[in-house]
Amino acid sequence: MKTRRQFFKLAGTGILAAGVSSAYSSPVITQHQADARDLFKLGMAGYSFKEFTVEQTIEMMKRAGVSNLSIKDFHMPYTSTKDQITSVISKFRAGDINPYAVGVVYMKTEQEVDRSFEYAKMAGVKLIVGAPEYALLPYVEKKIKEYDIRLAIHNHGPDNPLFPNAADIWNNIWDKDRRMGICIDIGHTRRDGKDPVFDILKYGSRIFDVHIKDVDKDTKDGKMVEIGRGIIDIPGVIAALRRIGFSGMCSLEYEKDMKDPLAGIAESLGYFRGVMQCR
Amino acid sequence: MKTRRQFFKLAGTGILAAGVSSAYSSPVITQHQADARDLFKLGMAGYSFKEFTVEQTIEMMKRAGVSNLSIKDFHMPYTSTKDQITSVISKFRAGDINPYAVGVVYMKTEQEVDRSFEYAKMAGVKLIVGAPEYALLPYVEKKIKEYDIRLAIHNHGPDNPLFPNAADIWNNIWDKDRRMGICIDIGHTRRDGKDPVFDILKYGSRIFDVHIKDVDKDTKDGKMVEIGRGIIDIPGVIAALRRIGFSGMCSLEYEKDMKDPLAGIAESLGYFRGVMQCR
Predict the structure, then answer these.
(1) What's the pTM?
(2) Is the ipTM here above 0.90?
(3) Distance, CA of A106 to CA of A51 (rounded, Å)
(4) What is the CATH number of the domain that holds B151?
């Protein structure tokens, strides 16, 4: 970078006109190396592939150059046996996909909490992205301790009275086991009139997972758009994630053109990576 | 930005812990507004749509959210009548596409030069992206003066002895009419072992058009990849374009997966826009 900066300096002083050697000795850095400079990684929230089979999901993720996946239940039903779960996980792994979490998992009863932790354990993941009823949180905390599996509670904005934003999650979990945390959905956060940059900085110590997306308005009727086409301050989000030392996944949850999402997924991940590339 | 910076400052000092109001008053800036802060705009080089009809091209460009096009001859043959050309141009305009140039046009004889300028005039564009034989440049200069249509000569790297890089173009045009300039292809530049950032800064005064792309190696056998997956320093390219006050088009010439290019086009434009968003 020193050479490059010096060059810009030269360009400014007019020394260029005198003829500077064009020897180009910058190291070759590919995008994957560039990504590797950040602690956090890109992934996909399984919901994006609602209309597709496991095989199609693998194929699309390969095209988009992304390998981390939070598995949604339509690809691996909660009622699956251990063998069925192993089979789905194996398919993903054979396709070079890393299933790092399950979710979003809703839990309305203690039985559903039990089932969710068993399900995550069978899947071999150490993270559940979920939304248990408020009253179940003490019971969920027991399970977290029993299984040593983390729970990242997902906020759903103004659509849902259950955990609208990160502040609400924080207020309900701050005194619980530190393995109970937040999956901040930056789109629902913005649709809830909140600033995801602010929330990431403020609640960063308990953010385990991030759902990345973009929206066209900061109100309930805001619609999802390709990342970069909406109003979310993506450079600010990335700066905030770096600031808190976030080392989890930024998983794209793409909910537009759900029957033909590949172009939008590719554009969104491309945009996010482009911003990541800038320092 | 002041508020955001102050906030980061607060976050660093721990004042956040005391509880800062989360009032969010940042202005809503959409990507199109963000793009508008730059003098240059995004476009597509028609060659990207080699396998597709005019209608399919319009459809894909709409999906990718890009509207400026340099038309390639397979969509509008050089032998077209005025009516045929008007019909193609009208189709693009009706699809909200702005045909801002024709090319890449190769010119091997004076007759082909004549035909090219007449073709551009009939198309109503003020820019030809092309590659005339070296010996024809004095004749081309006459045509530029006669038609008041600019020519941006395209460099083709190590594949082609005709204009391998911007330095070679510059050496052949510096003393010609100032409407004779350069379409710098950053991919071929890099494959020719040159640094596109350096060349943009050095030859900026005559750069009229830019072909954006990425490559995986800085040698002749370098292959095209999605922008961001290769070795080209895109933040450096954008900084250089800003430095020279470039006000033309950065047109993606996408030559990978040519039978199914939409995902790669979307990812490439997304990445470029992501970098543009950062300042």
Answers:
(1) 0.88
(2) no
(3) 20
(4) 3.20.20.150
